[in-house]
Amino acid sequence: MESKPDRSSQAPGVMREPNRQAPQAAMAGLYQRAVRDAFIKLDPRTAIGNPVMFLVWVGTIVTLLVTIDPNLFGTVRADTGSQRLLNGTITIILFFTVIFANFAEAVAEGRGKAQADSLRSSRADTPARKVLPDGTIEQVSSTALRKGDRVKVSIGELIPADGEVVAGVASVDESAITGESAPVLKQPGTDIASSVTGGTRVVSDELTIQITADPGQGFIDRMIALVEGAKRSKTPNEIALTVFLAVLTQVFLIVVATLSPLGNYVKTPVTIAILVSLLVALIPTTIGGLLSAIGIAGMNRVSQFNVIATSGRAVEACGDVNTLILDKTGTITLGNRLADEFIPVNNHSLEEVATVALAGSLFDETPEGKSIVQLAEKLGAKIDFDKSSCEGVEFSARTRMSGTDLPNGVEVRKGAIDAIRGFVRSRGGTIPPAFDEAYERVSKLGGTPLGICQNGDLYGVIYLKDIVKPGLKERFDQLRRMGVRTIMLTGDNRITASVIAQEAGVDDFIAEATPEDKIDVIKREQSQGKLVAMTGDGTNDAPALAQANVGVAMNSGTQAAKEAANMVDLDSDPTKLIDLVAIGKQLLITRGALTTFSIANDIAKYFAIIPTIFAAAGIGSLNIMGLKSPQSAILAALIYNALIIPALIPLALNGVKFRPLTADQLLQRNILIYGLGGVIAPFIAIKIIDVLLPIA
Amino acid sequence: MNSKLSEDFTFIWSAWNRRKYPTYLFLALCLNVVLASAAFAATGDAFSRPQIYALGILGLGTIALSAYLFVVMFQPERF
Amino acid sequence: MQVIADADKEDIPMLQGWIQIGLTLAIIVAITPIFGGYIARVYLGERTPFDRVLNPIDRLIFNLSGINPQTQMTGWQYARAILFSNLAMSILLFAILMLQGILPLNPTGLGAPTWDTALHTTISFITNTNQQHYSGETTYSYLAQTLGLGLMFFTSAGTGIAVAIAFIRGLTGRPLGNFYVDLTQAITRILLPISIVGAIAFVAAGVPETLSGPIIVPTLEDPNIRQAIALGPVAHFEIIKQLGENGGGFYAINSAHPFENPNGFTNLIQTLTMISIPTSMIYTYGVIANNRKQAWLVFGMVFILYVIFIIVTAIGEYNGNSQVNAILGSVQPNLEGKEVRFGWAQSALFAVTTTGTMTGAVNGMLDSFMPAGGFIFLSDLFLQIIWGGQGTGTAYLFCYLILAVFVTGLMVGRTPEFLGRKIEKNEVVLTSFLLLLVHPIFVLIPGAIALAFPEQLAGISNPGFHGLAQVMYEYASAAANNGSGFEGLADTQPVPTALWWNLSTSFSLLGGRYIPIIALLLLAEGMSQKQPVPFTTGTLRTDTVLFTGVTAGVVVIMGALTFFPVLALGPIAEGFQLGK
Question: Is the interface score ipTM higher than 0.90?
Fold first, then answer.
């Protein structure tokens, strides 16, 4: 588990590297297991689920029969020994074609399983201290816990099951599920910080937890099921593609089956083994063998980003999303506001204000306070007294201000406008009209104003500004190029919202938004045929998450939100929505690229096989590759056909490299690489294999 | 005698219903007897008897595969 | 002429031929927007010049037949209306053919044809194919030809137009319309007015239009020998034969007959009329979908393929048969089986057009073309979109666009969509079935059976590659509803193999006509009911040169994948054999 830097500081401008959750040791075993699974998948009951590969499998049996007896379906003219050798070689290649396709699927599934195993290890049977109704504590196994039970968990112990904190405050290490090494503070009574997940570890203090899930029903259990693909069903696009591949397969079955009488009529008969070879070469085995692997790998890629998708459909929908609805705070802006400007009043100079602000923030450890210090120092402010001789005044909800008591008895205060106004008056000072103007101006700019004073002397206003996450503007530009609109939702007033919206580069914003507005926006967009994605964490987000086509719940969010969403982000990073769009598109592009490639390959295979097997009919000149003989041509085409599957497994599993381009640019680029490339590549590859084959 | 016969048929019928695939296979082989004989008559000496039967099975197998692909086309959700 | 050197003399017919082809193509392009715009006006319910005359007639027809023109049909209702009306007309036609001996207008006293010939003729004409396993002048009476077959000329062509219009409406999200209204308007607003004008032009150009029987004349060679020259009501038959892409000739040798197609002028009109509706329908789509750019791009794609096909065929004919040339000692165009009055250029143009547009009329023997031509004609039939059948060709064209979107559209990172509508399972089943599977089922399977039993069933005149091409052509012509023949097959009664040909091609005719029509209508219905997705920069644009090029690639690859073996063992092998 790698440790990640503070997520708020992570630049969202770059596509982040996925967390490789699967440990390296497990990866080595993964291939062994995949090889074993590849053979298990030969079971006809499993094989029948993939029409293209099922035909290859049946073809393998037919060629095996003609290997045993080459004269089974009609006396061949060539000598039986060489026929047997050819048919036997064909059988072996066809068999490996099936195995390679099975292997691709098994590797993809294995990756998910490896991830599930690492999750499962955290779910091991743990002892739990159950609080009985009379207050006594009983040692039980975590599997004995039921919904509604209460348990106590102390420092160093694993939390036995999902639940809500009902008492105590403690840090919890959630790295087992999030990969986030920094512990999270958990306490009762808050929407978000009170929910805990089974399998995470308490690293300080003690919590009392009310269990919310029966054994096997917890969040991790459901995640394991999802990651393992236990409930995997085909997405609509996969179903449509399956139909298309079945039609193509059917077409080639008819073409090859009717070729026999055609060949006989022009007195160039072909053997059954060659017909089977031609059939296998023509049916789209490349995409047929990799289709399910691509889908599973898409789900895995999402989970490597520490997002759990409830279905492949959700991942596909990410690629189709037209509108992203983003919350301002935490998604578009950093959670904290930072000092941007000092506005002097009462004829004080900027330096004076900076110096007083610096003095007043010496003991302020909040990000806002630190940013005031930074800004003041940038303006050249210095303190001319010893910090250790001063006394800090902490912020409290009652006073709504903080500050510093200097050694000479001077009181420096900064805080909410009303609070400072009251403080100045209480020290006998007056409020100039310029002060009201200044703080109103700040409000209009979308910032938060703080007053700053020294005793009764009002110095000015500190402008705290919302900071848009760095790199977001570029991301939104990319999204716009891909045809995705962004809408920002915020509780701020219109003016503030419009300032932030413009700065962040979102396409639209909804100010003073309520949770109901979210649903309205989603419904409005959907009524125009758009697909909408959003993130949410609170219980009041649940209806909107359910309504959205892609709803991503934060792991830190409430159970209700997670139930309603079709994805859960374990890192609770709402900016990830943008990455999810890219992953969805990448999945679809990969599928399209391999389909195009697979079909384009057929041209070369036709040109390899037909002219050579019908050379006696005088069409040998069509053998533009100059292949040595019919046997060599068929074997070369089949070997290419078999080897291209494992060769493309990395592409299928990792996906085509994604670029944020417009549709036309993407089409142009991909049609060149996979369409034209798919026409040309096999000509070269088949020729090379033909040269290398040690037969005449 | 008559009731015995109908009992037998009922038994055979239920046995067939239990074992669908062997039944289909059996019926296919029966059909092949007809097909292969016709083909044998038509082709003359080109094929030996076992070869024509094998060809018949291959042809039926091809038709079965084709039927299977039609099922995939129209009910892809099942696969 | 005397001053022209010998070397230049050879170039004159070549240049002349290409100019003929080029001028005809220019007229075709010029007609397209005018005629296409007119068809769109008719079906968008806008005013047309014929309204004053035709509106009362339309109303009368609707009132008499009890049709409420306002009723909208679903895909299934539309398809059922087509099936039932065609069935009713088939029964009528079959009855006329079988009873022609006792019906009037039978100057030569012809009796009933055999039942299978009548059945095949009925199916062939109801499906807009007009494949003929008979000689018109010696098999069917004037009544059977003009009333029976002539009726089908209009209704089967009108059915095609109606299907295309319903399809375009569905694609663009409109309700499909009412079949009876669309059919009536296709006949009264499009087919009938042009036919009347065209028939008069044909009569003026020397095409007979008479009910009198054959005339007996002494031959020039020997006045004692007398020859019967068949006449008949040809002119009006001829124009709708071409305009409706029907192609069933009044005489056996079709538009090669000097009474059907006497001169260069009539030949030009015949070429233009047979291609004008399928070219214009593409423009009609552009108007209805309000995307003329896409219409012109698609038009351009087909036009380029069409021109390539013409060039390949024409060069093959111009260079002639190398074995004949070797005997002659010079390169001579292949004029065997052609009319000298049309020459190699107009014959090639006519042949590519007639096979491409599914008309099936011929002004020369297709069988006699060089293998390059045979390759092109077969490709025309297999692709079905180098203009394609009346209406259905245009619909196929857009199905190819849908298929191209489905195969390559994923590569832009969205699930595929066409005209803002998602291409999902149903669309894929229907388009891939009708574009990819119908032909293999109805061409390759019966073709393979016929070739497996060449003596018993097929009765092929040419053994080897050419015979294979003949058989495959016959079924491809039937399944594509073209109707032209490579000929040379013993398919005319009373030859024993005629029964096989009549019945097996009937199977291909029906399958190639009604399965696609039903699929097209269901496809249109499904598309019209989809919620349109808004267009963004992330959406695949289908009206670009790039995507149109991709579509052309998909058309060629898909066509080639299915029929490469047939082409390789037929015309390609024959070409190599001749070239040896």
Answer: yes
